[in-house]
Specification:
The protein is mostly helical and 431 residues long. It has a single domain (13-422), classed as Growth Hormone, Chain: A (Up-down Bundle), CATH 1.20.1250. 80% of the residues lie in helices and 0% in strands. It is built from 15 helices and no strands. The two termini are 34 Å apart.
Length: 431
């Protein structure tokens, strides 16, 4: 209890200094948090419409394909996004992107209301998710210009973790509103109304961006326009000169890949194993509870990270957190009961967020602003690719019920390999 009190006190003491940094950092938080709460509302509508409607039965391959469709194509355009973030004012990019995705959601709402589930809907959903990643990359690239280097860990803990919790909160809000609307409207109409509400949230986030000055979040020095993949290659080459930052990015990507596989497994277990496949609403509620518990873990991961970094340093802390969830995963592999799924979700969320916020600060402290947009675009590409890979592996391993001991064991082996080989002290240390 004494250690926990010390952890909480140290973190809480640091947060006011970060929030008050120049009086400008909170404005970035407001933009990010409102946008990600809205993401949760939007995603809850999509999950209900695509995965949990009685007419549209879910299975591992279909869910994995959804992950791939949403994320993999953005990995192809990510290099060009990095060039934009290093060439044009990031404030303007974030604002215009918010307005653009608000307009995109109007089209999605119309398609959902009409019951469309084909290629056209997929295309517009892809555009919405790709735009969202551009916004988050721009805000992450600009964050170091609003706080000092010593405050990067706490600033990332607030920005990234607050946003992640915001997605969970938004998802809960969306589910609550949907349950209310379903009493007087059909499922498709309820989902389309939720998407219109998300559109208003993105518009508000765009308006809030006006509170930042034009060049306040960079770039400090605008680069000449060149080919996207060439610029991406330069960013990658720069990362090779900072091997610990590159290894940290890859470790974060692998951690997110394992988390995605576990999420897909939890989705199928809730949808087809813990509850009757003919009662998708029960599956949705169970999945929302598991996500909520994981969200608590995410919050605690951010609270303990500044203390862990202070005691161990960034590199040792990342290495430890990569294996921190292994006991819970082994327990879940031994018994795939719902309680053990929730325990595994809690610890994977906690340790994953600790890895993410710590590595974000590591990358931000090592990379100069003129390259930061491209580096964070590469960061997104790596993470998105690993998420898709994790979903594909899960699709091949999992039965339709989701009940499998093999997948948690594979995730465990991956995390141990990353900590012991990819992040071995010889190549991943402050030296």
């Amino acid at each position: 209890m004494g250690v926990l009190f010390k952890v909480t006190t140290l973190t809480v003491m640091k947060i006011p200094r970060v929030v008050a940094a120049g009086g400008r950092f909170p404005r970035l938080l407001h933009i990010r948090w409102l946008g990600q709460i809205t993401d949760g509302i939007f995603q809850s509508a999509l999950a209900s419409f695509v995965l949990f409607s009685p007419e549209r039965q879910s299975n591992a391959v279909a869910a994995a394909l959804a992950f791939a469709v949403v994320l993999l194509p953005y990995s192809l355009v990510g290099p060009f996004a990095g060039v934009f973030l290093d060439r044009f004012p990031r404030q303007q990019i974030v604002q215009l992107a918010n307005f653009f995705r608000a307009a995109d959601l109007i089209v999605i709402a119309i398609l959902v209301k009409s019951g469309a589930t084909g290629l056209l809907l997929t295309l517009f959903v892809l555009i919405a998710f790709g735009t969202n990643r551009l916004i988050l990359a721009g805000l992450s690239a600009g964050l170091p210009l609003l706080v000092s280097k010593t405050e990067l860990i706490a600033a990332n803990a607030l920005a990234v973790t607050g946003g992640t919790i915001g997605v969970v909160i938004g998802g809960g809000i969306g589910i609550g509103i949907k349950n209310f609307l379903d009493k007087s409207h059909g499922t498709d109409i309820s989902d389309s109304l939720l998407i219109v509400l998300a559109c208003l949230g993105y518009l508000a986030s765009g308006v809030l961006t006006s509170r930042l000055k034009r060049n306040e979040i960079g770039p400090v020095e605008q680069i000449p326009s060149t080919a996207g993949w060439r610029e991406m290659s330069e960013g990658f080459n720069l990362l090779k000169d900072h091997g610990d930052a590159l290894r940290g990015i890859l470790a974060t990507a692998f951690q997110r890949g394992g988390l995605t596989a576990l999420t897909l497994m939890g989705l199928l277990l809730e949808r087809n194993h813990y509850h009757s496949p003919n009662n998708p609403d029960a599956g949705l509620r169970g999945f929302a509870i598991a996500l909520g518990i994981a969200g608590v873990g995410v919050g605690l991961g951010s609270i303990v990270s500044p203390f862990g970094v202070m005691k161990m340093g960034r590199h040792r802390w990342i290495r430890l957190m990569m294996v921190g969830a292994v006991p819970a995963l082994l327990l879940f592999a031994f018994s795939t009961k719902e309680i053990f799924l929730i325990v595994a979700a809690f610890f994977v969320g906690l340790c994953g967020q600790a890895v993410k916020v710590t590595n974000d600060a590591l990358v931000q402290s090592k990379i100069e602003d003129e390259y930061r947009g491209r580096v964070f675009a590469f960061y997104d590409v790596a993470v998105n690719g690993a998420i898709v890979l994790g979903a594909i592996v899960a699709a091949f391993v999992l039965p339709k019920s989701g009940n499998s001991a093999l997948l948690p064991l594979l995730i465990t082996a991956l995390y141990i390999w990353v900590a012991s080989f990819l992040l071995r002290p010889k190549h991943f240390s402050a030296r």
